[in-house]
């Protein structure tokens, strides 16, 4: 028979049922419309049945509790002292704990990876969304798998990676569907969000080889670790006991508390570590590799991090454990996610969670910056970056500050992977570049590259060469302590026909005067930190023929060496 919801149930507040449950049902229903004989409604902690013509307590007990002898219990519950015929339509309270049990089920509502199962009949396979599991099923997850199951009363059982769990009892009461659930944890961890079982007299237990955790509605975790069984309560209360003890010794853990149960006994109650603290700058992720960092805690021996699609962390996409307080995750598409981070104490107890909404916007990915880097010693400012395969244009910004509020250059639609600008004053500057791609015919602006900071320093510049009065030609240029130099002299402007290519420790050069002709000269500097500047602007010098004496010395006049055009 199906549970029949009648207008009568809607008219009676729940509080009346709980406060009047111990008095005669005649009083409860005296002023209510008569219900259909033979129907029943759920009135926790009882089921209320409306008698048919000819019903007796023993007949009702046999029909609904499968034991005729229970008529005496029904008699006491309803203040009826004998087993005679009951008037048609009489409301009879039947305690929920007397109802027989029938099979229930668990349904996979979220999963990652390839969790596997072994049914009670020995059949095996991989689970999928929507898979229905029955009593006796054993579920296992590897390092990349995670799943969440829902029970008919909306309770949730989440099994993280590297765990093995058996649904050792999966039942409900007949007629009212009051849950009767036992989960056996064989390896790893299980987290349960249990709907309230107080009113319907339901039961939910997590068992291990050492401990039993029973609840009436709460959010808690049970894990197997090296020292025993870890119990962690996030909401509500959990009664834990040692399964090996001859005399039952029970301890109630309340919200924010945990303990370890070992073969030696029930460990003391400890406070779970508080939620970790994380800077809000991690809430927007602009690189394909999501990175998080929480404030380090001296009490934390490690951290557990989960990425999920929902705030309740039911549909978990990835999870991992870390010793350090920095975490990385790869392989996610742009979108909105939730991150849950818990600190793990030195006992192995996992603390209270921090849950934050996170947005990943990493595409189109920015190009790699090429130049400038660190320093610039050039007469012009040349920007360059790599080409992005999906780019239709690029957005370049150049500023005096790292926040890019004091912009000097803002070019939002550059088609090339380079840009040249006038040299600014000496000082520190910042630049970045972003990719703009086409998405469904619309321009999509990606995140900027990492900010590049560089200093504009004095330009290395050549002074006009000194031809002197003899056969030497001298060059000099401004320099800074510790710099080294490369000077080149060529007979062509492209510096393919080098006359001289020389490295120097000083900012000067003296060479024998070359033959008459046109020469091109440039120099570049290397700073002590290894920075190599661009070549200076090319200087052009034309050396004219000169009259010389027998020893090769230039013949002088009052105005200097005498040229052949004199």
Automatic annotation (TrEMBL):
Residues 47-94 form the LysM domain. InterPro entries: FecR, Ig-like_fold, LysM, LysM_dom_sf, UCP029644. Residues 1-30 form the signal peptide. Coiled coil: none annotated. Keywords: Signal. SUPFAM superfamilies: LysM domain. This is FecR domain-containing protein. The lineage of its organism: Bacteria, Pseudomonadati, Pseudomonadota, Betaproteobacteria, Burkholderiales.
């Amino acid at each position: 028979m199906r549970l029949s919801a009648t207008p009568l149930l809607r008219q009676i507040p729940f509080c009346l049922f709980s406060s009047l449950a111990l008095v005669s049902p005649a009083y409860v229903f005296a002023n209510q419309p008569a219900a259909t004989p033979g129907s029943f409604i759920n009135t926790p902690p009882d089921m209320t049945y409306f008698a048919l013509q000819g019903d007796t307590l023993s007949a009702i007990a046999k029909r609904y509790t499968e034991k005729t002898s229970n008529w005496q219990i029904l008699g006491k519950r309803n203040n009826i002292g004998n087993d005679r015929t009951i008037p048609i339509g009489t409301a009879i309270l039947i305690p929920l704990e007397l109802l027989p049990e029938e099979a229930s089920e668990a349904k996979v509502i979220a999963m990652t990876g390839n969790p596997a199962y072994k049914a009670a009949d020995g059949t095996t396979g991989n689970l999928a969304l929507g898979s229905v599991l029955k009593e006796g099923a054993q579920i296992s997850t590897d390092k990349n798998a995670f799943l969440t199951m829902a029970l008919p009363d909306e309770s949730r059982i989440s099994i993280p990676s590297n765990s093995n769990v058996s649904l050792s009892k999966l039942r409900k009461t007949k007629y009212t569907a009051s849950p009767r659930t036992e989960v056996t944890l064989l390896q790893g961890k299980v987290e349960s969000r249990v709907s309230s079982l107080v009113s319907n007299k339901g039961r939910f237990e997590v068992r291990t080889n050492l401990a039993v955790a029973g609840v009436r509605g709460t959010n808690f975790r049970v894990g197997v670790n090296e020292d025993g069984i870890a119990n962690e309560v996030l909401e509500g209360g959990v009664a834990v006991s040692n399964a090996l003890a001859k005399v039952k010794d029970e301890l109630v853990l309340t919200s924010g508390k945990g303990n370890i149960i070992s073969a030696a006994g029930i460990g003391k109650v400890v406070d779970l570590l508080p939620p970790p603290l994380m800077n809000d700058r991690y809430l927007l992720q602009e690189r394909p590799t999501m990175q998080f960092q929480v404030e380090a805690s001296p009490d934390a021996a490690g951290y557990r991090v989960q990425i999920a699609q929902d705030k309740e962390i039911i549909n978990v996409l990835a999870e991992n454990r870390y010793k350090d307080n920095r975490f990385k995750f790869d392989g996610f598409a742009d979108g909105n996610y939730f991150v849950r981070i818990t600190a793990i104490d030195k006992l192995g107890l996992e603390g209270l969670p921090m849950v934050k909404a996170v947005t990943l916007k990493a595409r189109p990915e920015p190009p790699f910056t090429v130049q400038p880097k660190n320093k610039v010693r050039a007469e012009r400012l040349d920007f360059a970056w790599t080409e992005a395969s999906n780019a239709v244009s690029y957005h370049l910004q150049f500023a005096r500050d790292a926040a890019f509020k004091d912009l000097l250059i803002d070019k939002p639609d550059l088609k090339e992977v380079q840009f040249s600008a006038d040299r600014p004053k000496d000082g520190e500057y910042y630049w970045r570049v972003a990719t703009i791609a086409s998405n469904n015919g619309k321009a999509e602006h990606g995140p900027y590259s990492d900010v590049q900071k560089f200093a504009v320093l004095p330009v290395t510049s050549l002074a006009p060469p000194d031809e002197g009065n003899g056969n030497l030609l001298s060059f000099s240029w401004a320099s800074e302590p510790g710099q080294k130099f490369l000077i080149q002299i060529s007979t062509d402007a492209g510096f393919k026909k080098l006359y001289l290519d020389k490295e120097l420790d000083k900012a000067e050069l003296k060479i024998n005067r070359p033959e008459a002709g046109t020469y091109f000269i440039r120099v570049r500097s290397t700073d002590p930190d290894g920075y190599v500047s661009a070549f200076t602007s090319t200087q052009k010098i034309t050396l004219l023929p000169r009259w010389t004496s027998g020893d090769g010395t230039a013949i002088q006049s009052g105005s200097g060496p005498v040229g052949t055009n004199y």
